[in-house]
Amino acid sequence: MSHPRPRPGHADDLMELRAAAFELLARGVADRRSPVHTPTLASIGLDGTPRARTLVLRGFDAAARTLRLHSDQRGEKFAELARDPRFALHAYDPAAQVQLRLQGVASLHTDDAVAEAAWQASQPFSRICYSIEPAPGTPIAAPMPAPQDEVVGRQHFGVILLRMHSLEWLWLAAEGHRRARLDWPDGEERATWLVP
Length: 196
Ligand SMILES: Cc1cc2nc3c(=O)[nH]c(=O)nc-3n(C[C@H](O)[C@H](O)[C@H](O)COP(=O)(O)O)c2cc1C
Description:
This protein has about 200 residues and is α+β, with helices and mostly antiparallel strands. The chain has a single domain (about 10-115, about 155-195), classed as Electron Transport, Fmn-binding Protein, Chain A (Pnp Oxidase, Chain A, Roll), CATH 2.30.110.10. The chain has four helices and nine strands. The protein has helices spanning about 15-30, 75-85, 115-120, 125; strands at about 40-45, 50-55, 60, 65-70, 85-95, 100-110, 155-170, 180-185, 190-195. Strand 7 and strand 8 form a beta hairpin. The longest helix has 17 residues, at about 15-30. It is elongated, with a radius of gyration of 19 Å. The two termini are about 30 Å apart. It binds flavin mononucleotide. Flavin mononucleotide binds next to strand 2, strand 4 and helix 2.
């Protein structure tokens, strides 16, 4: 006989929902098997068209409402976010049946303490990617060997820090879906249910 799962607190309580959403983001950093570990980052292309790609979620600071991603400074997303820092981030956790949609503004860090701390904390096998030549996205005649030299990668390494201005939550449940939005105008938190 199957037992129904206990009703989670986030079904009816916006503050429990907030805690659950932040917990999914924190687990996305800590647990490589979490689908939130590899969210989709959307930015506005240099030609104004939408762009989306997978990145690894490296850090989440709940108090600052920031998420940390690592990328090659020479990549298109870096140029896109430098021109227009507005982003959207999407993740869906099938086990939790929750979709997260974040929006906000990105800052780019290449030569400051944020970038240096992230580089120092990176594994050698992660660092090596940043020494690739020529730049990521350059057309080549044939697939090329993987780069070997981690030291020269530092000059290409960058941190994308996403500061969220809003978080939208959608929970799929047989008893009735739940949709809610948190946002932080003027630093104050607002939370509201939305029609799913
Ligand atoms: C599972 C997975 C994880 C990835 N993680 C990163 C990452 O952490 N940083 C990154 O720059 N690209 C990552 N990529 C590659 C990006 O999706 C993308 O192809 C690349 O960064 C070029 O994007 P751009 O041309 O928009 O700059 C990852 C791809 C996959 C499939």
